[in-house]
Prior knowledge:
Elements: H1 4-12, E1 19-21, H2 35-38, E2 48-57, E3 67-76, E4 82-93, E5 96-110, E6 116-130, E7 149-165, E8 168-174, E9 181-186, E10 192-196, E11 200-207, E12 209-212, E13 215-226, E14 232-241, E15 245-252, E16 256-264, E17 269-278, E18 290-300
Parallel strand pairs: 1-10
Antiparallel strand pairs: 2-3, 2-18, 3-4, 4-5, 5-6, 6-7, 7-8, 8-11, 9-10, 11-13, 12-13, 13-14, 14-15, 15-16, 16-17, 17-18
Amino acid sequence: MKTIIKIISAAVLISGSLILNAQQAPMYTHYMYNTLVVNPGYAGSRDALTVTALDRAQWVDFKGAPMTQTFTLHSPLANKHIGLGFSMMNDKIGPVNNTSVAADFAYRMQISEKSKLALGLSAGVDVFQASLNSLALDQQSDPVFQNNIINHATPNFGFGAYYSKERFYAGISVPNLLENNYSVVKQENGNNLVGKEQRSYFFIAGTMLKITDNFAFKPTTYVKVTAGAPVEADLTASFIIMKRLLLGAMFRTGDAVGALIGFDITDQLHIGYSYDWSFGLQTGTYNMGSHELVLRYDFLLFDKKQIHSPRYF
């Protein structure tokens, strides 16, 4: 079987005269804790200065496999209608590395006594790098792989709508509206070879169902739609025990199954770990699964008495 580097390079850049789009957005098993990366409308929704860090090692022991890190912080302002955030993502796959930094703005509207709707915007920069001439190729003269792409910076913008109640949320978003070009290579026959970003559309939703005072069920979903790629949906079922311990299972269509565990060390600090095993495209035969770790901390901005409802999401 060819290495992951060749597989991903073929998926990201073209080896003919057609346009090929980059792969789908990075996967997150803890998407329910990484919401700001997915939807800028989430900014300020926890009524606290919230800091979240995530690290994902995908397909462990598979050469060139994806590795992803994200860092986000967000908070409401004194004006309760405004939320601001900052998000950073680094995604490395084989010889390709993409880093993005974005500022997030959300306008939050109280549409009923118990529900809010937030409209969010994000603006930032993507920095793309690819060490293409380091690859071992079957055809050394392939013009696509002759030159590295070094610190190719492009602007990007995103939009999101986020609806929330005490025990339910749903959102739609387009984090990257622009489809920037990564590279253009001219062949002798005059054809252009183009590597470019592909716009993705996201849908998220979740609810918290109280079963007893110390036992609750928390189903969530994360759906990704990208042109030229299969629709991908994460379905997660979690149980909250004693209001502290989370145990869950996940299924990713066409790709993976896994398990999650999380614990609220304090009312403000949450730690979570997940393991998922990929069954799609027989990749599970060649790797030791994927590991993900998430940390979230709420620096409360208001006296606890002013926070009338728990922050379930």
